[in-house]
Amino acid sequence: MPPEILQPVFSYSWPVVFGVFALSGFILGWTAQRGNYCFVNAMTSIFTVRSFERFGALLILFGLSALGCGLLVAAGVVPAYDQYYFNYFAGWYILVGSFIFGFGAALAGGCNLSMLYRAASGYVQNWIELFGMMIGTYIFAVGIWPFQLYTMEKGIFSTTSGGYVEYVPYLLFHSVSGTAVLLTSLLFGVPLISLGIYLQRYTRAKWSGKGGGFTSFSMSLNRALPVKSFGGNFPSPTPQPSGGLRLSQEVKDLLLLRKPYGTNLSTVILALDMIMVFLIGAGYTFNYLVITSSDGGRFFEYILMLAGVHLFLNTPWFSDSLSIVDASTLMVVMLCVGAFASSYLSGDFKIRIPREKKRLLIGFVGGMLVGIGVRMALGCNVGLMWTNFAQLGYDGIIFLFGMLGGVYLAVKVQERL
Amino acid sequence: MKTAYVRKLLAPVVLSLFAVGWYEFSVIYLASNNQLALSSGDLAVYVIPQQFQGYLTATLWICYFVVFMGLAMFWYNLVNIVREEEGGRWEFGAIDLAMPLAIALELVAFFYLGNSLIGDNVAVRLLGYCAVLGCLMWFWYNSVKYVRVREVV
Amino acid sequence: MSEELKVRKPDEVLDVRGESCPVPEMMASKKLKKMKAGQVLEVLTDHQPAVDVTLPSLCKSNGYPYVIIKDGDVYKFRIMKVG
């Protein structure tokens, strides 16, 4: 049996560890806002517009994260137990939870990541969703968690432990040696990255082949801006730099926040962010990027603390699953700060209220489903799905399919609403 | 005043206040609730002292950083709004004169507040002195330019 | 085609100001399905990514021509449904 001891790999003081998580949150918020990175949108676009460009980017993100973290372990820089230590249980709840999450997030208009960075960019719809999520977490805690915990303890459609039991190198090779991890990370990374690139190319090829005779342009009514023509063909879904545009100009525009980041640039920055946290947080705490899946509940608890209510004393889940603070608290706060900074500095920040008021109600209900779904699945699209690919587990794969199912249903329901 | 101006000026101030509020909340509420978790024997919730202190120290640093960032954004937008109000004709004025001083003051405040954290770190202090001195030289340059521009007018 | 879209009065207007992805393209897709060929849909949005990425994707996927008109903080994204 492989060891199960969590000990710091590198020596820093706790403020440094917390500081690095805060920095990673800032980078995450900034990059996601600039790249408009949304997991739900990547999936809805498959069903609504048959575009795989952003979904392909997601697969590349998962592949790069698995490969990067796996190689660090295979090279002996980070011990294997730091990779599998926080692998959760797998079971029915991941599939059901991710399905509910995907459905709620697509209805409300944002996954856990985009909900936060858009809330920080002034979208009231996402504030409502965040509030709905807090309520959903509470409903889960008192209504579902005791039952779920029972099935987890008894192993009813569930594994009864996490850790190395769910570590794919161990499952495949019965070993957590460097070679086993190397082979597994290649097994994860190479197909995911290849498939992601293929899907992106396929979508772009489809766009360039279609609608040859149409011309699109933009113009300004109140400012005498020149009419912009995209030429005979439709452009790629994500604006591509034309051949003549110099790279230095492109970099300058990105640095000065004149242009949003391309999908793939955001993907690479986010994967590097994940790898940075994996390396620096190893042995200290949950050394992956983690979003509000637990912090939605934590902030709800904080709000109630102001009113003198202490959920951690006697409420299920709050009393056994959530420490008062951890690195993810600062990560989430700084994610919002980073997203606010980039939206504000780029001139995008604006308080936006949906014109149709029923959308606010849909946002709230969707948010509640998001809260229930992420807690059932033991994590959100970032804290569980993306993270679990970096952990070389298989929960992320279950989550991916569950979420796709939920998003598909939401697209169909939305058509009737 | 245009609503966009209020938004542009208010948002960074709210950000700075949020950072201060978050730190205060952590010190007052989270610390006492952590003790409550310990006294009620809820070890799944309780955070050990070194870790909790690490959180507070990191939060304090972040608070300084975010307050600094918020004030810088506020100042930057104030300058832009004044420029816009002048119809873009305005080239060099009192704000150019006040800007280096404001930034120097912010830096001094930043270092003053961070004294307990920086300790005797000479490298950080030297960097701070250089930045403040740079601002003062910038102020001097702007003062000379300001007088010249006025003379030409 | 684009000149016509620019000057022609839209047959349907979809106001999704304040909404973020994926709502604008989902609502636009739903609306377009109910419209007849030759009709023009105008989507009002202040969500930049919808103008840059998702609504153009929707049009390209269906082969519909479109124009983008900026009016202050709001974009008017006009789409013509073709058969």
TrEMBL record, chain A:
Q: Which parts of the chain span the membrane according to its record?
A: 12-33, 54-78, 90-115, 127-147, 167-195, 265-287, 324-347, 359-386, 392-411
Q: Which UniProt keywords apply?
A: Cell inner membrane, Cell membrane, Membrane, Transmembrane, Transmembrane helix, Transport
Q: What Pfam families does UniProt report for this protein, alphabetically?
A: Sulf_transp
A single cellular component GO annotation: plasma membrane
- Location(s) in or outside the cell: Cell inner membrane
The keyword NADP appears for this protein: no
Q: How does this chain sit within the bilayer? A: Multi-pass membrane protein
Q: What coarse category fits the chief subcellular location reported for this protein?
A: membrane
Q: What is this protein called?
A: Uncharacterized protein
Q: Tell me the classification of the organism that encodes this protein.
A: Archaea, Thermoproteota, Thermoprotei, Sulfolobales, Sulfolobaceae
TrEMBL record, chain B:
Q: Superkingdom of this entry's organism?
A: Archaea
Annotated transmembrane regions = 9-32, 52-76, 97-118, 124-141
Sorted keywords for this record are:
Membrane, Transmembrane, Transmembrane helix
Please give the name of this protein.
Answer: Uncharacterized protein
TrEMBL record, chain C:
Q: Which CDD domains match?
A: SirA_YedF_YeeD
Top-level taxon of origin: Archaea
**Domain named UPF0033: residues:** 14-38
What is this protein identified as?
Answer: Response regulator SirA
Originating organism? Candidatus Aramenus sulfurataquae
